[in-house]
Amino acid sequence: MSGTTILKAQGLELWRGKKAVLRGFDLELTPGAVTVLLGRNGGGKSSFLRACLGLLPWRRGTLEVLGLDPRRRQRQVLEQVGYVPDVPDAYEWMKARELMRFLAPHYPSWDAAEAERCLERFHVPHDVPLAGLSRGQGALLMLAAALAPKPKLLLLDEPFAGLDAVAREEVLRALIGALGEGEERSVLCTTHDLDVAARIADRIAWLEDGRIREHGTLPEVLGATDDEELAGAPRRLAEKFLGVEMSSHA
Amino acid sequence: MRSAMIAVAALHREGRTQRDTLVKLAAVTPLLVGAITFALLWNGSTSRDTVGASALCALLLGYAGIAPGLIAGERERGTLGFLARTPRALRAAFGAKLLALVVAPLAIGAFGAVCAMAIRAAISAGAPSAFFGWTEGYAVLGLLVALWTLPLGALLRSGLVMPAGLLLAAALFVPLGLRLDAPRMGGVRIAAVGVVVAATVSGWLALQRSQRNGGRLLQSAACAALPLLVLVPGLHAWASAVASKNAGRSIPVPVADRTHLDEAYLGADGRSLYLNFIPLGAMRYISLVLDVQTGEVQREEEGSYYSNLGVFDGTQMISGSFGRHSLLVHSRSEERTNTVFETRSGAILGERASGRRNSIDPELDGWMRRAKRETTPWRDEHGHRLWFHGGRGEIETAEGEIEVREAPQDARFVAIGSNIRRSTGDSKLRMWDHLRWREIPKMEPSRRYLGTLLSGWLTQTTGAWEIIDPEAGVSKLSISREATDEDSVVSVLPLREGLALISTHDWETGNGRRWLLDPKQSALRALAVRGVDAQRIRGVDHGGYFFCEARDERDRLLLIVHLERAMRLARLDVNAASLEVLSCVESQTGESPLFAIATVGPDEVLVLTERRILRASFATDRSTVLYEVDQP
Hints:
The complex is a heterodimer of chains A (250) and B (632). Chain A is an alpha/beta fold. Chain A has helices at residues 45-52, 74-80, 96-103, 112-121, 135-147, 165-180, 194-200, 218-222, 227-231, 233-242; strands at residues 7-16, 19-28, 34-39, 60-65, 81-84, 153-157, 186-191, 203-208, 211-217. Chain A has one domain (31-55, 76-242): 3-Layer(aba) Sandwich (Rossmann fold). Chain A has ten helices and nine strands. In chain A, α4 runs antiparallel to α5 and α7 crosses α10 (233-242).
């Protein structure tokens, strides 16, 4: 892993229809860190992740994922990158085991034991079709499927969007637990949930007007020097990036 | 190994995804088939029609049910993104969808056929025979339309995919059809392959671009249209080339699809074939001379035709008796002129006479009478020569004079087969068999005239065949138990051995048989068929029309038989009552009936159907199409 860029975007310009969603976008991930890409809805976060998977073309700039151009080496990129969508996108008839059985041959590094372990740890029912799972269970199933091939880079596209508080907590704990063990893994998670960002992020990148406005560790971004200042991170992030005045009890 | 596992996973996923649709289609199919079967039966169709129609409708139902959801369904479910972000899954899924597009409708079609057979068997005692010949073209057309649903599925909603596919196929094929007028089968196959390849490539590109561009319609549509941009000019260039190449070999008349061969005369050189085609509705002949060695065609102007004056030195293959002749008339309808060519040993020596019809008719009349007198094989009981000329019977007397037998006042001559004239009146039937007039007794119960033998007439009554000989009386043939009440004689070929080769056909079951009839003994023998599986002869032999004999060097009769929709050369050993099937002349004969064959070489025959002329070897399986009326 050393010497290889995990993810590096330089001067990226990406259009959706007649709108440039990314323009002059620069971002480089730190290996082994959880980077949270923050930004408003429709700001281009999901488009950037799709570009990282080679599913969207860009007009200008360069993008490297694990040292590869996703447009030209899409298969190799997909084999080494785990992806969790905002809404479970597998077939509704697929049960957890059927999903794993379908995905297994597509990934050279697929670890069936790891898949089983994730399902057990996340308490995902094995024999219930995706359509019968709760939204939180569906997200956990997608997370388990993304972790099973032991990806070097995990891309999470708003995995907590649309979840109620209980489900969100459940998925968040599962995610933190999964990231905390095993081999070193780089993570890029997009969200507009500042609380989530504060709890999982090693680094924060703020996306605004199609480019990264600020990027650094949470203390760096907040200018915090002690733990007390970090304790109010969600509020301070909101104040800093959204210009929202929030009470200290919020 | 991994690729195989991915393929298996893709197939399983596709099958599971389409499972509900397939179950619904399987549930609807028996209802559809039942409705079709009963509707067709009420209209008097045979079992093979009901099975073929049911299979086709079920197949098209399968296409309509499966095709729109293959790609558009994925888009609408939101699962296309899942496949696109799974490594190698999109490609495998596309392959699985292509397979599903072919296999699933075929399975539904087969299920429909089975349902139709079961329904037919349940309501009738006889086991129905499956017959799919006429459905194949529509099935392939359905597949071609369905294939366009792949690129369209990446662009449009599933409900719009099938209508759009139909429109696209029409936009592609209608101009091609107009340009080609009547493409040859080989060309149609090339076009079909081109369409399949283009549709598949379009589908893949559209699917990929649709994903990459996040559903941007314009780019995706451009990718889908790209192979079309190559295909359409290519097909039209090919059509132009074919049309240009066929300019001298095809018949450019507006009713070309109904044009058929009417008469053919083979020169004694075994090389020049004089052909008259009739475009139905146009009422004007089109005549050609075909070199059977080189396939070169010399086309006469429209409205001209060749006619046999009975003096053409060659073999008249169609519409008349076989024999040796030495004159050929070329008539031009527009100019109302006739040109008479003298032919000796097959070569046209030159014009014999030419002019307006009325002016040369007397001269022709003399030539014809003389030639017929010289070539007639018939003698009366006193050894005097008999022939027909100008619609009259003529007998040469002992003094060398010609005695003319006119048709009675209340009757007229009608040519039947090759050797008989019949006069019909209001109340009686007279027949002339080259020896004398015979008045046929009023036939009760009603008989159906089947054919003329040397000494009588073959007729059929319910459950029996009869030979009516006015002198010897009526003799019933002992039909073997293999012939049923349903058997109808479709052709009678008198053989020079004094026997007759009879082809029968059971219209209900589609079975056909061939028999050797000995009129003198009133004996009927079913032919033993060698060279094919005995089981396969059932339901396949449709007989043919014979007006001449083609024999090999050992005097065995060469025939064409239809076996399982293929036209096959066969050799009949008359003494052994044995028919040996030799080789396949042409498969997919369609509905074009066989006209005649003639030997043109030591081991070759010329086969003439309504629309094609083939040169076939009975020593090998090779056959060459020398000429064909372009198919519509």
